[in-house]
Amino acid sequence: MMGAVGGCNALLDNGYADAPAADASAPDATAIDAAAHDGGSDLKADASADATTLPPSCDASVDYTTDPLNCGGCGHNCGGKKCIGAQCELTNYVGPITGPTHLALGSTSIFWSSSTTIGFVSYDGGTAQSHALPNDGGSNPIAVAPTAGQPDTLLAAPRNAANGSTEYDFCPTLASCNSMDTENLPGYVTSTVQGEVTMFVGYDGGITGHDIALGITTALPAAMGDAVERMEVTTTSIFWNSRGLVKSTDFTGATATTVVNGPAPATAFSVFKATVIAFGTTANEIRICTVGSTCPTSTLVTTTQAAPGAVVLDNGAAYWTDGDTIKKCTKPFPCAAPAIILAKAQPNVRELALDGTTLYWVSYGDDAGAGGWLRSVPK
């Protein structure tokens, strides 16, 4: 049975506790660079040392359009790749694929889910492996989440069942997704896995926890009635957004705490080191807040974004989508310099993920899901 676990951690040294209150397409390289990374993390955050809060300085001789050490902006390093047109070369891992929606970083591989398949590809390239889910009324996997014990094989992928409910497959290998641990749920939006014990499923009506070993399903009362649009799980807490709010609870699910409530409804969010929330708003802003302290007021990262969607943080910078463009700006916030454009012409980016050197994403493609990709760029 799922045990009671304490609520949010005390504030960590995350580089954000003292944040000030505020106010031409990329080149498309296919070469794979085996970047160092820190394994599968449900926080999607890197483990690098804290970056200085002082912005880098460059003299007037720097050519930001070609300098791989200052590509698109002062201090943006392409990590050995070329800088062409003020953007670092991209790495194409998998594509075109139909409608990819989610990704997860394992210890040796990157996992993705699409509208019909789940699969993985190694960080250093090679042939991607994928598995078509059974079509029993409209397959639609919405999450992949390697767990702590088996980071490169254990996946979770929900799919629509013929009766209109949702069957949830928990797969120790890609090939076994037809037969493992199927449960009926009343619809879904997102999911994740915590450790090797509990799988949490968010749906249009709440969150349930699933004890994999014992086969026990428990509704989390704190989230009941919420339309869960996105969910992230840390070592002690569950975060989700619903109707413009970002909330959290511990694993008992007894009490929900609203951690983000304005100044405009949140459109997307991510959690960094269990205490810092980054989120986009309907007011076309990117903001951050520290759980338990500055969330009611938050810190403005940048504004005038056409369509802020996915967003992630590391110790020194924020990364987000603005329409079909992926951008970055470094601390201090608000962004003192114009945002660095990391990639253009990436239609419908659904999810971003970071490791120590690289930003990864899946782009859904056009509205029909055609032309999707799994790609990365030096961060």
Can you give a write-up of this model?
0% of the residues lie in helices and 40% in strands. The chain is mainly β and 379 residues long. β5 and β6 form a beta hairpin. It starts with 82 loop residues before the first strand and ends with a strand. The N terminus is likely disordered.
N-to-C CA distance: 40 Å
The Rg value, from CA coordinates, equals 20 Å
Q: What's the shape?
A: globular
- Succession of helices and strands: EEEEEEEEEEEEEEEEEEEEEEEEEEEEE
Which stretches of 5+ consecutive residues score pLDDT under 50?
A: 1-14, 16-53, 185-189
Tell me roughly what share of residues is in helical segments: under 10%
Helices, by number, come to 0
Report strand order across the widest sheet: 3-29-28-27
Could you tell me the mean pLDDT? Answer: 74
In total, the number of strands is 29
Show the helix and strand layout.
Elements: E1 83-84, E2 87-88, E3 91-97, E4 102-105, E5 109-113, E6 117-122, E7 125-132, E8 155-160, E9 166-171, E10 184-185, E11 190-194, E12 198-203, E13 206-211, E14 216-219, E15 230-233, E16 237-242, E17 245-250, E18 257-260, E19 266-272, E20 276-281, E21 286-290, E22 299-302, E23 308-313, E24 317-322, E25 325-330, E26 340-343, E27 349-354, E28 358-363, E29 372-378
Antiparallel strand pairs: 1-2, 3-29, 4-5, 5-6, 6-7, 8-9, 9-10, 11-12, 12-13, 13-14, 15-16, 16-17, 17-18, 19-20, 20-21, 21-22, 23-24, 24-25, 25-26, 27-28, 28-29
Condensed summary:
This protein is an all-beta fold and 379 residues long. 0% of the residues lie in helices and 40% in strands. It has a 4-stranded antiparallel beta sheet, with no helix packed on it. A 4-stranded antiparallel beta sheet has the order 4-5-6-7, with no helix packed on it. Strands 11-12-13-14 form a 4-stranded antiparallel beta sheet, with no helix packed on it.
